[in-house]
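Annotated sample (chain length 273).
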Amino acid sequence: MDFSTRPSNVRVCQFHHSGTGAGKKILEGAPTACQTGLCYHPGLFGWATGGRLGNLSPEHIAQGLMIYVVLLFSLSVHESAHGWMAWKLGDETAMRLGRVSLNPIVHIDPIGTLLFPLIQIFTSVPLLGWAKPTPYNPANFRRDVSMRTGHVLVAAAGPVSNFLLALLFTGVLVALMRSGLVQSRDSFLLNLAMLGIELNVLLAVFNLIPIPPLDGSKVASFGLRGDLGDKYDRVVGPYGFVILMLLLMSGALGYIVRPIESLILTVLYTLVG
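Output written by the structure step:
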């Protein structure tokens, strides 16, 4: 039978100032794009701060659409990375189904990936959302790949791909700053690059939290030695979704994610110079 990656994509969308812009004055106080993100099925969406639909200005609408486009691209890379890693390990399930693709259409659920996130981005309504899980069959892994190692690599591939995307967007930002193409803090290219950085860092960090059904839970489950993985599954597995919901709704999740996210963003923005 086919197995899916740890549900692929919780997205948490919040407008905020990261406070981590360093170096170029043009980055100081620049409006950062939405920290969106994240991956799991069923995907849980956090609170959006886009405001009520009737109060949205053309600028808010344009920014919301930019957020959504970058989100779809980042999620497509994330999902494709799961399938690509499984293919490298010998399983062609996702490849045969066309899921190793940057075409967001193959990863979209009409309600969970289209309707709900758009409603959340442009309103203050918290909603649940989901995307198509990326299937893989560990029975097809090469003989030199243990089941435990295969599961860990496939699960970790998604968050790692988002870290790499964050580095790529950082390189784009460096090129923009040094080329002189960015002349103000309101530059579309500046905000696009910063959105790509922050969204992908959030996507990666959030998904590595070892709470089911996030990718980090599978890394923990199959990565822990001896019978610790089984104990982890018995203790955390049945209550993972409830724990995640409580952390999100109480705001406690931010105390876990933000310090790590801020540290990574500080390092990346320091590279800008």
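Annotation: The longest strand covers residues 3-4.
Annotation: The chain has one domain: 7-78+106-133+143-272.
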